[in-house]
Amino acid sequence: MTTPVELEQTQVDPAVDEVGTGDRPWLTIVWNDPVNLMSYVAYVFQRLFGYSNEEATKLMLDVHHKGRAVVTSGSRDKVEIDVAKLHGAGLWATMQKDA
Amino acid sequence: VNGWRRRGGLVVTALSEREAGLLRGLVGQVRDMLAVRVAETPRDELAELTGIIAGPTTAPEDRVLARLLPDFHREDATLSGGLRALHEPELVAVKDGAAGVVLDTCPALGGRVRLSDEQAQAWLSALNDVRLALGTVLEVTEDMPDELPSDDPRAPHLAVYHWLTWVQDSLIHALAGT
């Protein structure tokens, strides 16, 4: 039996938890988790948000290496929908206001 | 299972009877857990009248359900609660639908599986949900070994987890054409 064993790290960076105020946009953050496959995360970014393979792979690697990445931004309503879509795909995503 | 391939307009594989039974059982279990979550959500009279179903405002206590249905915000519990009430019913419906597609298209006794792209997307989501559930229970970590010592009670379950990982990865490559 052959299995991909590239499992992602779980890291939490408290620095991005600060919630800003004012007219800053909302951000969609995807967090690293030990279950989701790197191939799957990159594929989901392409499918949900129309990123190229290259862009999606870069974002996926940011999640993998830095523990999280901003994948979309905009109005609260837009980001809320994006987070819901990511939850639908099983990714660990949250929204926050740009600090 | 020999992995997924594109054949004509379809995405195809073959499962043994044991593999099909295992997969159907796991997908069914996740579906049952989601159904319990829905059943535990109180229905108010207003929702009955309007047909607009509000989900619960609090995260599931069960760790598997909590992983399948995460919070929207890390600190703002009020915001998270409101958005959960708004989005959770649809999220559960989407996951339930994906599980249903697998149960409809995975032959109980094994054999060929032939999927349209839309069905393959449902399989991808359902496989991921099953891996999230199993990975949560097994407390999978980044440095999880390929195999656990044979006297570890988790050993056979970890083998199933790795098998699901392989099946999912193969499906991604078939769909992405990589």
List key phrases describing it.
heterodimer, A: 99 residues, alpha+beta, B: 178 residues, mainly alpha, three-stranded antiparallel β-sheet, 6 helices, globular
Characterization of this structure:
The complex is a heterodimer of chains A (99) and B (178). In chain A, 39% of the residues lie in helices and 18% in strands. Chain A contains three helices and three strands, in the order βααβαβ. Chain A has a three-stranded antiparallel sheet. In chain A, α1 (38-49) crosses α2. The termini of chain A are far apart. Residues 6-20 of chain A have low confidence and may be disordered. Chain B has helices spanning 17-40, 45-50, 63-68, 77-105, 117-137, 155-176; strands at 5-7, 10-15, 111-115. Chain B has six helices and three strands, in the order ββααααβαα. By secondary structure, chain B is mostly helical. In chain B, 61% of the residues lie in helices and 8% in strands. The mean pLDDT of chain B is 93. Classes of the chains: A alpha+beta (99), B mainly alpha (178).
Number of helices of chain A: 3
Oligomer designation: heterodimer
| SSE pattern of chain A | EHHEHE
Strand order of the largest sheet of chain B: 1-2-3
Q: In percent, how helical is the residue content of chain A?
A: 25-40%
Q: Give unreliable regions of chain B as ranges.
A: none
Distance from first to last alpha carbon of chain A: 46 Å
**What's the overall average pLDDT of chain A, rounded?**
85
Task: Report the span from N to C terminus of chain B.
Answer: 19 Å
Mean of all residue-level pLDDT scores of chain B? 93
Overall geometry of chain A comes to globular
Q: Percent range for helical residues of chain B?
A: 55-70%
Which protein chains are joined by the largest interface, and how many residues does each one contribute? Answer: A-B, 31 and 40 residues
Structural class of chain B comes to mainly alpha
- How are the strands ordered across the major sheet of chain A? 2-1-3
Element string of chain B (H = helix, E = strand)? EEHHHHEHH
Shape of chain B: globular
Query: What summary fits the major beta sheet of chain A?
Result: 3 strands, antiparallel
